[in-house]
Amino acid sequence: MTSPAVRVEGLSKRYYLGAHERRYRTLRDHLAARAAGAWRQIGAALRGRSVHLDGEELWALDEVSFEVPTGEALGIVGHNGAGKSTLLKILSRITEPTAGRAEVRGRVGSLLEVGTGFHPELTGRENVFLNGAILGMKRGETAQRFDAIVAFAELDRFIDTPVKHYSSGMYMRLAFAVAAHLEPDVLFIDEVLAVGDAAFQRKCLGRIGNVTSEGRTVLFVSHNLRAVQQLCRRALWLQDGRLVASGPSEEIVARYLRATEVAPGAVTQLLASLPADPALRLESIALRQDGTPVERIANGRPLEIEIRYEVKQRTTGLRVFFDLCDPEGLLIFRSFHDEGAAGIPATDPGSYVARAVLPADLLAPVTYELRIHVGIYNVRMCTPPLGVRMPVAVDATGRYNRAYLADTHRGLLAPAIPWTNAQVRHQ
Amino acid sequence: MANRLPSMTPARAREVTVIVPGRGWMPIDLAELWRSWELLYFLVWRDIKVRYKQTLLGVTWAVLQPVLTMLLFTLVFSRLARIPSEGVPYPLFSFAALVPWQLFANGLTQAANSLVASANLVRKVYFPRLLIPMASVVAGLVDFAVALGVLIVLMLFYGQPPTGRAAWLPVFVLLAFAASLGVGLWLAALNAQFRDVRYVIPFLTQVWLFITPIAYPSRLVPPAWQPLYALNPMVGVVEGCRWALLGTPAPAASLIATSAATTLLLLVGGAYYFRRLERDVADVL
């Protein structure tokens, strides 16, 4: 088959900002707005201009075109609000485009959320059939795959228990299991893997990988760039609704990372451009060694990460934390400022300085990515989804045997491990 | 996967979904609706199952609601207001009307709220949205069947067992069902856009109850008003049901025809209006 599984031509979607509030709140408002709008239009017509009644317009998707050959997995990367979800919603026919055209060849399965349509009062078994039907499976198909679904979800003992008694992990496993057994020709997946524990995520990734190896086509939206690289040969990069680039996923992910990470000097600028948060303002982020700001890090000395921030209102559960990631964005470790505290502390308004010190002889001589986050526990993140991202280039100044200078470094960390090596028996 | 049905592959592979912006009024994709009948089945099944799992009295509600209304009507309209009941015991007279009325009123109420209640589903999965209000009305058929059983018991109690005319009952039930769905579609679409519609619905059904010959026979309406009165599809349904079950005077053919015509208009109009909204309902909800 030479025809592509998905063909998108000039696809665009317009939303009106504020349209929801202005137009759709109540019938009374609608009628009132209509009357007011009519006046404005008459006025505008008299002055020879046209007025848009519905507020500011936003192109969530702007003339996007691409093709996906049958059997290929395509990753879609981009910031929040770049149009990734809108694209999948249009291709899944949940919403209509404003302009353009798309063709999807074969049966479509879309997984924009895990567990859509699950009903808490129904048992696992009942929900499998209901969810299967919602996702477009015939009853016979669901029945045929039922055992495989239950086995994948590892829930055989609880399958006749109402899902309201499930733990969130069990719920997720079952929900993903149903979707994973949908077996469509074209599968759209949006950020589904953001949930669940690591083992579950690996299992899901494996399952999605199988889907492509079976010759099905996959469109995969994720903030997990490593997963995008693992699963997809090619990727698209969307920004502000426009297609910035497409190509081999390694190349696109690398370009995306390069374009979106911040040079150390530009951090202040970036912080100023962050959307305002009612509770918090990040003032500065600095990296210091021996008290002086550094561009490159020497791994033989401790590294101090200093985050200055202003708290505007008393906030419970405010957490400052950072992720140390490898160059591809894989998390090596995450550390929270209140790890030593007991309970969930409340933070009073004022200016704060959080300092984290990475010990000497921990980092490897590679370029890491440091992601600074501030969040309110169980409420929201105050920083972008990937945090404030800065590259951290590390030089090998630490403890190592310089006689083996040519020895290549292995691994993402180079901690100083105390060794002993004593001769215990003479020959 | 090895267990994939091989016979389905070629047909599916050729099937191309074209996605383009919709323009103006678009027809309803009946073929797609037909293909989705299994989903309709599951949605109905869910509605029924959840309703009876969550409520204490379960199916008793289906009996209690019309029976209590019937007792109240008997007390107020028969005993106090002395409203005639065409020679039929008043409890039977009102109950035979309340059973189809309940199908209509509950169906349209459920349908009107269905789209908003399923917002989460609508925002995340595609399927013909028409199935949601349809499922709500279809689920009401269970309550209707239960109430109809009670009515038959009541008829036997009064020594008036159903006759051969009862064979006409399905026609009137279908009419009530179609009217309920038609009005339900309009209200569901309006409710998705304007949240104050939901407050109008109880008032609407209450008014509608009184402009339908449930507590009184339709002949009490002055002849000059009859043509206008017949525009209410439930007039034909209620008079038809009474005739089929209780042998009250047969409704005029013109009355039934008018009711059927309004029902058809409501249903087709509702379906088109709903279809128009369907296109961006996910953005509105």
Written account of the structure:
The complex is a heterodimer of chains A (427) and B (285). With 427 residues, chain A is α+β, with helices and mostly antiparallel strands. Chain A contains ten helices and 21 strands. A six-stranded mixed β-sheet of chain A has the order 5-6-7-3-8-9, with helices on both faces. In chain A, strands 12, 15, 16, 19, 20 and 21 form a six-stranded mixed β-sheet that branches. In chain A, strand 6, helix 7 and strand 7 form a beta-alpha-beta unit. In chain A, helix 4 crosses helix 5 and helix 5 crosses helix 6. The longest helix of chain A is centred in the first third of the chain and has 20 residues. Chain A is globular and about 75 Å long. About 3% of the residues of chain A have low confidence. Chain B has 285 residues and is mainly alpha-helical. The longest helix of chain B has 28 residues. Chain B is globular. The two termini of chain B are 37 Å apart. At the A-B interface, helix 2, helix 3, strand 4, helix 4 and helix 5 of A face helix 1, strand 1, helix 3, helix 6 and helix 13 of B. Strand 4 of chain A pairs antiparallel with strand 1 of chain B, so a sheet runs across the interface.
How many H/I helices of chain A?
A: 10
Cα Rg of chain A: 26 Å
Largest sheet properties of chain B? none
Structure classification of chain A: alpha+beta
Please report the two chains with the greatest interface, counting residues with C-beta closer than 8 angstroms to the partner's C-beta. Answer: A-B, 52 and 45 residues
Key features?
heterodimer, A: 427 residues, alpha+beta, six-stranded mixed β-sheet, 10 helices, 27% helix, globular, B: 285 residues, mainly alpha, 13 helices, disordered N terminus
Give a short summary of the structure.
The complex is a heterodimer of chains A (427) and B (285). Chain A is α+β, with helices and mostly antiparallel strands.
